[in-house]
Structures are given as structure tokens and as C-alpha cells.
Amino acid sequence: MSKQISLGIDIGGTNTAIGTVAQDGTVINKTSIPTPKDGNVEAYVASIKSTINELVSALKALDPDAEVLGIGIGAPNANYHKGTIEHAPNLAFKGVVPLVAKLKEAMPEMKYISLTNDANAAALGEMIYGGGRGMKDFVMYTLGTGVGSGIICNGDLLYGHDGFAGECGHTMLVPGGRMCGCGVQGHLEAYCSAGGIKRTAFELLAHYNATDSLLADKSYNELEAKDVSIAASKGDKIALETFKLTGDYLARGIADSIHHTAPEAVFLFGGPTAAGDLLMNPLKEALTKYLLPTFKNADGTPKAKILISQLKAGDAAIVGASALVWKELEK
Amino acid sequence: MSKQISLGIDIGGTNTAIGTVAQDGTVINKTSIPTPKDGNVEAYVASIKSTINELVSALKALDPDAEVLGIGIGAPNANYHKGTIEHAPNLAFKGVVPLVAKLKEAMPEMKYISLTNDANAAALGEMIYGGGRGMKDFVMYTLGTGVGSGIICNGDLLYGHDGFAGECGHTMLVPGGRMCGCGVQGHLEAYCSAGGIKRTAFELLAHYNATDSLLADKSYNELEAKDVSIAASKGDKIALETFKLTGDYLARGIADSIHHTAPEAVFLFGGPTAAGDLLMNPLKEALTKYLLPTFKNADGTPKAKILISQLKAGDAAIVGASALVWKELEK
Asked: Which residues in chain B have their CB less than 8 angstroms from residue A263's CB?
């Protein structure tokens, strides 16, 4: 029996990662090409095509029977319905790029080519390969430079009318609060992204005038969220309170997602989850404050499971994107 | 050709309204029975059955060919998946009531019997009979004593894992803010329900010491949201600012719903919508502040249409509930 393979493409601001993925979510081989700085779509498509051909040739050298089914793509500002990337602020492409149509033209041998935003792809990856296997309703928050999310309802991604649903990173947490990257004040992303965690730490340093904190000797541009995590694990009070507050902020947004979609579970993915219980315990505790009784157990704990993603950090974007192919196959 | 009819039941804390509804959403006849104060489910089911038999007999006297297809029920704390009403604080029933099973036993001639919460039923009513005809993705907020909501995704209600999705009235608007009926501080319902509007008016009276306001001569227990609406239409400054603030509060919650589900439209239903542009204009203006660019037009206005429900106020609950039958028929 031939082994079925899907391709995952993760389009980032600087690089585009491309890999071949087995049906169990294992990345077989992968590589990376630059995302064009000049916005030249034709050259980019040609480069993706030749890279895929190399990966597939190498794969077939190992397993001549391998059958490549299609390509799944995760990208910022991706419109699933139209197969386009639209006005992505961190990419050099101008306006609306019909990437799926162009790839289908270049590679007619691919049965399925499909595109969605990176957080949606991660949620699909969790459902097809990760901790969401067997679940039909869950929400995934991806915590990184920004905060993305993907909502799985009834076994499929919630796309909404125009394909852009699932922007839970822009839940209003603090009216008139911190400036978010999108230009609106008080959004969750400004509090719960890696940068948001740093901002909380700096606010607390200033609030307590905490000259003895392990975080007090790094500049704003030097400090990273992982430094806060390391300091917290050493018992630093500012770092511990930073995670406590981050858990509380995140709980407000997750409570909103639970009230909207009644998921079986909420998965968290990304760098800040490496803090483990330092983040998860305050998050779960705060959820008991913010949830409607309908969404809580008799002991006050959330009915929805609050879980860390089972996707491997390094491969998650490729693996998530490749999950689109399996999802299309089901349809 | 026989005319197909569905029955709608709206279970309220005091009364249960029951009506027969034509396929165009017209209520043909309707009546009301008391919702039991003693929590006796058996007697309640018998009473519903005899009331339905009377309504159907009267209907068949008018149109002997009328075919009754089934019963749709809107109720608080309703679990669509299980057909149960669960721990409803405003009903006398104890614990979990398997209402659908009991009605099916009592009336085996009904092809479809189905139950959902009242706001979900209203959303279905909007899709089947109202302004949501032809739409596949929209959100409906019902503003009344509380604030309910129903989310239509991909042409069906979003139920979530346990059937309780769509509680947008409990979006956290103001951390540490007003006490909500559910016991959590700062939820949308405490700001945008009819009572929430009154609370805003009283806060503003106190803030400005507005002894000359048209609202300054009624007690807290006397004043109703519609008094605020009347005063606003006369140019009363406190009343106008009350609606401006209500629109702003509502916009924060609706922005969250748009960020989660990317709807084609958001419908508002209920008493406070009688204020018309007094509410809708500040709401639309505030949405331009709170939405991600992805969800706005080039001129900053929301892409999602912000609309007042087309369901008739008096019949909406029965009509909405009856829509469940047509929805089940589609499946």
C-alpha cells in the first residue's frame, strides 16, 4: 500500500517553510526559502514549485510508492474561501494575492491545494494530529509575537462569512488599555502575546519599584518573555506576578470564547506555554471567576479542558498547514 | 396541496406561550398557559398537550388540510443536544427536565420535537422568516431583561460541545464593573439589557448631579428603559448620553462576536431597539473604533451589517421556536 503524504507550507514575514508530512503528523523532510521582499508572486510560485519538486524527489528516493495528495498553506491574512492572501501587513505582496489559483496552475498534479491563516492551520493540526483528535468543538490560542486563534466547530474550522473568523487575539480586555499592534487599545494580544508578557513585567517593575527583581537589569529591548519564565521558576516575585496577571488576562478572553462557542477544550500553543503551570494555574483559577455557571463543574472548575498543545513547536506550522489536505479529503 | 404548519412554544418564567405558525412565519392562532410554579413536569406536559390539541382543532376547522409537522420549543437553559432544560434559575423545575422525551411520549404523532434556548430560537426565526433569510453566518443579540444571543454559522445554529454556545450576554466588558445577574462583575448584560440601560442612566444622573433631567423625578424602581428612550427623543442630555454609552458598551461585545465568528450581519432584537438610531448610530460609530481592519470597509464602517430584527416583537418567541421545526426538516 502506498503511503499518503501531504505538503505543508508556512508563510512567514521572512521565510517560507515547506515540508512533507506523513499521515501521523511526522515531518519527513523540510526546507525553507525566503519570502520575497519585492512582492514578486510569479517568482515566488516558481520557487515554491521547484522546492516542492526537490522535497518530493528526495521523499520518493526513500519510498518510491509515496503518493503526494496536496498542499496546505498557512499564511497571515489568508482567505480560505477565496484561496487568497489579502493585504497582509507583514508581507511584501500588494493587495490581494490569488496564491491557491497560481499554485494550482503551476502544479496541476496536486489534487488539493488550500490555504488558511496560520492559527487556523494550527487548530486543524491539533485536530488531525494532536490533542484534539476525536474532538469536534475546541478553540486554539497561539501565543507568540501576536496572538492568533482557530475555532473548531462541529469538526471543522469556523471560517465565517468572509473566511476571517477566529481573531480572538483582538478581544477587548481593557477598555482604553495598552495599544495593540492593530491600532486599537486594550486587545488581548497586547497583554498575552510574548511581548504582552514583557509589557506586564515592565509595568510591575515600575509599579513596585522592584530594583531587586531578576528582571531589573535588562533593557526593554533586551528582555524576552522567556526571561520572565526563567525568573519565575527561580521565585522572582515580579515574574510570578507577571504570569499571574497574564493568566488572568488570558482567562477573560478564553471565557469569551467559551461563552461564544462552548468548546470541549481550549488549547494553548506557543512560546509562553513553556512556562507550564506558572501560566496554566492562574489561568484556570481566573476562569472560575469569569465563566457563567453553565460552563463550570460543581466545584467551580471550567467544564472545558484547558490544555497545552501537543504539536511539536518547531514543526507545528508545517504540520498544521498540511492538515488542511486531510481535512479537504474528508469533504 | 396541504398547508404545512409548525408549533412554537416559548417557555417563560411565568407563562408559556403556544402558537401555530405558517411557513411564512405568520402566527395563525396562539394562547398561553401558566408555567408551573410547583415544578410538576407531568401536569405541565399534559397541559401543553391539551392546549396544542385545542389549537390544532381550531386550525383544522379553518383549514382541514393543514398538516402539523412538529413542535419547536424555546426555553431558558435549554440543551438542544439532549432535549432537556437544565437547572434553569427562573423556572420551578428541579435539576434536568427531559422535556422533549416527555412530549414525544405524550404526542407520538409529531414528527419533530426539538428545543433550544430562547435567543437561539430567535436567531433561527430571523434566518427562516426574517432579515436573515439567505444568510448563512450571522449573530443575533436579544436585548431584554437579560441579553441573550444566537450564533448562526454555515447555515445552522452554533451549539458547541454541550449545546450551550452563544452566551454573548456574558462577554466581559468592564473588569471589576457592575454586578451581572449571573454573579460575575462586568458582563455585557449588566450594561446593555433594559435594566443595564437604566443603571447607566442612574449613574449619569449621579455623575452630573442632573437635577434638571427628565429622568430625575422617577425612583430607581419606577424608571424603565423606555422612559430613557422617550426622554432621549425629547433631547434630554442624560438620556442621550445613556444611549451613546449603551451603544459603546454593546459595540465592544459585538466586536468580540465579529472577531470570533466573522458574521455577514449582526441583528438586534428586543425592547431597547425601539430607540432606533439613538442606539444604532452610537453603536455603529463605536464599532469603527473597536474592530480589526480586516472587519472594516475602506471608510472604516463595519463590513458586517448592523441591523434591527425583522421579527414582530409580540410573536417573535413563538415564531422563533417554530423555526426549529423547519430547520430539523432540512436535516
From this structure: 160-161
Query: A164 contacts in B (CB within 8 Å)?
Result: 262, 294-295
Q: Least CB-CB distance to B260: which of A168, A173, A175?
A: A168
Q: Which residues pair with A85 in a beta bridge?
A: A78, A97
Distance from CA of A250 to the nearest CA of B (A): 12
Residues 6+ apart with CB under 8 A from A299: none
How is residue B10 written as a grid cell? 416559548
Does an H or E element contain A287, and which? helix A277-290
Give the separation between CA A196 and CA A188, rounded to whole angstroms: 9
Give the closest of B163, B260, B264 to A257, CB-based: B260
- Among the residue ranges A306-310, B48-52, B61-65, the one predicted with the least confidence is B61-65
Q: Are strands B96-97 and B112-116 parallel, antiparallel or unpaired?
A: unpaired
* Alpha-carbon separation of residue A229 from A111, A137, A193 (angstroms): 44, 31, 13
Question: Count of alpha carbons within 13 Å of B45, Cβ hemisphere only?
Answer: 15
Which residues in chain A are closer than 8 Å to B291, comparing Cβ atoms? Answer: 184
DSSP secondary structure string for all residues of A291-327? S-GGGB-TTS-BSSEEEE--S-TTTHHHHHHHHHHHH
Pick the closest to residue B18 from B48, B57, B40 (CA basis).
Answer: B48
For the stretch B236-251, pLDDT in tens is 999 999 999 999 999 9
For cell 496541476, what's the residue? A108
Model pLDDT for residues A151-194, shown as the tens digit of each residue:
999 999 999 998 899 999 999 999 899 999 888 999 999 999 99
